[in-house]
Amino acid sequence: MRAVQQMIKPWRHVFKLDPDRELGDGELEALCLSGTDAIMVGGSSGVTYENTVDLMSRIRRYALPVALEVSDLEAAVPGFDLYMIPMVLNTPDPTWIVGHHRRAIERYGYLIPWDMLLTEGYIVLNDNSTVARLTGADTDLQAEEAAAYAQVADKLMSLPVVYLEYSGRFGEVETVRTVREAVEHSQLFYGGGITSEAEAVQMAALCDTVVVGNIIYQDLEQALLTVQAVKNTQQMHFE
Ligand SMILES: CC(C)=CCC/C(C)=C/CC/C(C)=C/CC/C(C)=C/CC/C(C)=C/CC/C(C)=C/CC/C(C)=C/COP(=O)(O)OP(=O)(O)O
Ligand SMILES: O=P(O)(O)OC[C@@H](O)CO
Ligand SMILES: [Mg+2]
């Protein structure tokens, strides 16, 4: 297994911080010392080189892994522990599957630290989200259709990560369960709409890694409570 895959394998809980949103030093310290396994830096709009460098250097004061989820080439900042590269599987627009990626490779060439890159097969499921609008994702999927996309990522493309993305809304548990049953090798990330311990526990039982984002900016105390909720939850096993 590649070193980057080994790095993310133990991640159960991750906070995703958006460079385009304000976060005080005290709040950042609470997040970084919360016991979460890692910080992902990313957003689907307003991410610039400047706000990404600024956030990375502030997180760097703490001893936990920090990943950049690359969503805009202008914000390809060196100095992260790893780079997570989304490919949106359920869009008809190849720009978001391979187009930006081809351009990135043409632009950065030998500067790309390949051994620090990890590809994520994104399945975008909230129609009312920035990422769905941006990528034109076909979010109107039955559970079995989402599971088929997950198997494209897992079994045909051998992607290290399948990312069920409900950004901004709590997902359908039955869909997540159906996807869980279909994914064998990829690490299954869940993100979207977690605002409480109970919601965190539900998704932690089904997924390898739970990502918590927006609630950080709305109710920090609730966000912090999700860390132990996830870590104390055992994953269900499916045959
Ligand atoms: C030189 C150097 C340091 C290199 C570093 C790495 C690098 C740049 C390597 C180049 C290789 C490469 C292949 C890069 C890919 C470039 C790229 C721009 C790909 C497109 C990625 C993509 C599909 C983006 C679409 C949007 C997306 C899926 C974003 C992921 C994050 C996300 C969904 C955040 C949620 O957004 P949020 O703002 O929270 O949304 P809400 O408003 O709903 O809350
Ligand atoms: O912001 P929320 O809704 O928690 O979603 C987390 C993450 O999946 C966003 O990319
Ligand atoms: Mg967000």
UniProtKB/TrEMBL annotation:
UniProt keyword list: Lipid biosynthesis, Lipid metabolism, Magnesium, Metal-binding, Phospholipid biosynthesis, Phospholipid metabolism, Transferase
Enzyme Commission number: 2.5.1.n9
Cofactor(s) the protein requires to work: Mg(2+)
GO molecular function, one term: magnesium ion binding
Residues the record lists as binding Mg(2+): 18, 44
Quaternary structure (record): Homodimer.
Role: Prenyltransferase that catalyzes in vivo the transfer of the heptaprenyl moiety of heptaprenyl pyrophosphate (HepPP; 35 carbon atoms) to the C3 hydroxyl of sn-glycerol-1-phosphate (G1P), producing heptaprenylglyceryl phosphate (HepGP). This reaction is an ether-bond-formation step in the biosynthesis of archaea-type G1P-based membrane lipids found in Bacillales.
Protein name as catalogued: Heptaprenylglyceryl phosphate synthase
Species of origin: Paenibacillus agri
